[in-house]
């Protein structure tokens, strides 16, 4: 049984060994370790523990890349076969469900684990810099391997259940939210309500929330890293986080194996076309006019007039509910509480939520900019139109930008009504970095648009990972620029070079996007 199941896994591993790009990626990862090592060496005169600084950068970089791999790579292991309709062919070839799961998901997890373990000889260099011990290095690697097992198998379970890769990615993000974010939010919310005398601290609900928060801390790899990276760490490398992550991952894998056949059959038989036009389609009565691509992006990718009007209502209503609700809660609290819900604080919270809405909307729109034309193989016909490719891209950008007017108007209104809300959200020492953060977000959107043409799914995760790697590689260069110019121009010694490099990256990515569109059109 297991011999037949491991045939597909053996084939996937041999293919991985023969792929040149996999080896190049591993060498690039080792090169990134040396770049971060060089960065820590440059800052060793200003940092008391350069080894700990170097190791901390590597740890959190690995964490974010593994998390992004879980969102964009592990979650598409089975759904990509469902979308390409090759799952029945694999079954006809005699590949069992266990072999398919091992070959499609476990091999990917093994690649990531080997990539992490390959860093071990170079991480030992951190001991020479000082501030870190071999025990901390081995404990961190073991915690990271357990986290890879956890997230890869949870993503595999979501991939087995979902019919589309987008659904699987959304399910993985929801699971990560429940694992890492929701317990903290519940704990903070109930602590605030207890301080106001609105909830009994000894009640059943409060004890349940405290238990959930305690369990989440026990299985959280973030909490484990924070414990390991403390000076004087002497605990065992085998912790509750390692054991629980491996156990949950194994249970998720066997659950995916047990549910593979019924869920795959349900997926194949459940796809029924619905020729009846949707309400959104029936309500579109406008015509494109001369700006056809502007109209198309606004009507189809952003929801059209109905979504535009709905967002014009929802965003101001959200601001009113947060501000009025917080001040109302302040007025009826019976005892002294942790923090007051002032006008400026509530407006700052509203500004933060609207900024998050702007980021989510713009990210979603950009990832879908070329999706329909690419999927329906319409790019060759699009390039035959009597318009330049640059005009087509800019018209699409304008059409998507129109959909961002409601949330952008809400942000502008908050800044006008409560200018101090920005000071509440961002420390005054960080305000000079706001233009740099904005232009880097524009770079991220360009990366997302480019990767949406390169890969079918996971463009968001790859774009975020590329931006993180780019920031890590540029850190030594920015530090050298700071050493040269910080006496003459101060903090701008870092800000201005990074700002100009970001602008240049946007221009280069625009040329890459145009070239990729022409390449895809020629191949189709």
Give the radius of gyration: 26 Å
The biggest beta sheet is recorded as: none
Count up the domains. 3
Average pLDDT, all residues: 77
C-alpha geometry: globular
The helix content, as a percent range, equals over 70%
- Count of runs of 4 or more consecutive helical residues: 25
Task: Give the percentage of residues in beta strands.
Answer: under 5%
Decide which structural class fits the backbone.
mainly alpha
Spans where pLDDT lies below 50 across 5 or more residues:
267-275, 279-284
Number of strands: 0
What is the succession of H and E elements?
HHHHHHHHHHHHHHHHHHHHHHHHH
Could you give the distance between the termini?
A: 42 Å
Structure explained in plain terms:
The protein has 524 residues and is mainly α. The chain folds into three domains: 199 residues, no CATH class; 133 residues, no CATH class; 96 residues, no CATH class. The chain starts with a helix and ends with a helix. The relative contact order is 0.09. About 3% of the residues have low confidence.
Quick tags:
3 domains; transmembrane helix; 78% helix; mainly alpha; 524 residues
The gist of it:
The protein has about 525 residues and is mostly helical. It has 25 helices and no strands. This is ABC transporter permease.
